[in-house]
Amino acid sequence: MKAIELQHPGGIDNLRLVERPMPEPGRQEMIIRVRATALNYRDVEIARGIYHTAFALPLVPLSDGVGEVVAVGAEVTRFKVGDRVCATFWQRWVGGSFAMAEPSYQRGGPID
Hints:
Layout: E1 2-6, E2 15-19, E3 30-38, H1 41-48, E4 64-72, E5 84-86
């Protein structure tokens, strides 16, 4: 699969198109064919190396994207192959009041 990785901090000029192996969905995971994306201010700050948190590189600095489900893992019950979906920045925040819990589940940082 194709991915755009940030390989070195310093700006969006350090983004590179790379080939990665196609992942298999794990328990409670889905694979999404991404159809549209946007770099938001946070993604640009990460690329520039000025975000308040440093993440291990290389990474895919992408918080916002939409697409369709192409595979589901065990215990996925709310979605099926073919569903159109959009990402949420906080992966485990489904609804209700927001608490900045579990920072290791941020998309576009520790999770591609």
